[in-house]
Amino acid sequence: MDWVLIITQLLNGLQLGLLLFLLASGLTLVFGIMDFVNLAHGALYMIGAYFCASLSELMGSFLLAIAIAIPATAAAGALLEVLIIRRLYSKDHLDHVLATFGLILCFDTMVHFFWGPEGKAIELPAFLDGRLTILPGVEFPTFRLSIILAGLLLAFGLYFVISHTKTGMLIRAGASNRQMVSAHGIDIKSLFTIVFAVGAAMAGFAGMMISPITEASIGMGNEIIIVAFVVIIIGGIGSIKGAFVAAILVGLIDTMGRSFLDTLLKIIVSEQNAETAAPALSAMAIYILMAAILAFRPQGLFPPKGR
Questions:
Q1: What is the distance between the alpha carbons of residues 159 and 240, in angstroms, rounded to a whole number?
Q2: Rounded distance between C-alpha atoms, residue 218 and residue 49, angstroms
Q3: Do residues 235 and 28 make contact, with C-beta atoms less than 8 angstroms apart?
Q4: Would strands 131-135 and 138-141 be described as parallel, antiparallel, or unpaired?
């Protein structure tokens, strides 16, 4: 195999993994800490992408668009939590699934109404639109490297806040004993609104990062949200560390499988059978990984303490 291709695909897998972490980290906060199954998390990923695309077109600056779109997506998440989600916490998970599935349809319809059926592309600034030489003979797109850097910085920052700050302590305490936190004068409703808004901002930022590579489009979050759930199940529901490790694993396995599985299969089966089986097996790889991990660690790789 070409070592340049291997390194390039490893970087692509790392980039995909960090994008998945941005999405899954917000999902694991909401699902693990608030015990709420939010299928509409992918819709916030889409909304963030459309906010960024429109602002970038309006102002002519991708970076300024991101700076405004992130708090705008957080505000949209907070509004959604206050108006709708808060009333569902006492319901069971099936009600969560049905209600948030309805929200997906509502968000898709709203995007179609305001932005139209066509996707919206985002133009990158010149300094992010080139390629960098990272090793002799290995070039990689500058913007994809910036996604990796941003993902790593946010992963560290979020882990530090959740694990080593008073706010993080309150969030973790609110997950395990809401009555105790409320008895100490903490407004648990406001705390959960903040958590939901942060999760929305993380999902929206992931959408903003992927849109220059693909585009902002209706329903763009509906497929990736399934992969995000796979990530948090593998990592351990409610665990930021687990979401990070699992996202990297899923990103690498998915990318490397799609790139090299057919070559490996040709060693043991005929070329025709390998070309037929490889796409299906590579698509199944992350689900096989999830099943294998759950068989030995049903709680996930890094379950939160106390679970």
A1: 6
A2: 10
A3: yes
A4: antiparallel
- CB 304 within 8 Å of CB 32: yes
Tokens of 296: 């030995």
| pLDDT of 90 over the 80 cut | yes
The CATH number linked to 241 is 1.10.3470
Question: Rounded to the nearest 10 degrees, how much is the dihedral formed by the CA atoms of 267, 268, 270, 274?
Answer: -80
SS (H, E, C) 235-299: HCCCCHHHHHHHHHHHHHHHHHHHHHHHHHHHHHCCHHHHHHHHHHHHHHHHHHHHHHHHHHCCC
Which tens digits make up the pLDDT trace of 22-69? 999 988 888 877 788 899 999 999 999 999 999 999 998 999 999 999
Answer whether 156's CB lies under 8 Å from 148's CB: no
Contacts of 200 (CB under 8 A, 6+ apart): 26, 41, 44, 48, 73, 74, 76, 77, 78, 80
Amino acid at 190: S
Across the chain, what does the average pLDDT equal?
Answer: 89
Residue 102: φ, ψ to 5°: -60, -35
Mean pLDDT of 156-165: 86
Domain total in the chain: 1
Q: The domain containing residue 222 runs over which residues?
A: 16-120+145-296
- Does residue 1 lie in a domain region? no
pTM score > 0.85 for this model?
Answer: yes
Residue 9 lies in a domain: no
Tell me the DSSP string of 162-179.
HHHSHHHHHHHHHHH-HH
Q: Kindly provide the b/e burial profile for residues 120-132, where b requires at least 16 CB atoms within 10 angstroms of the residue's own CB.
A: bebebeeeeeeee
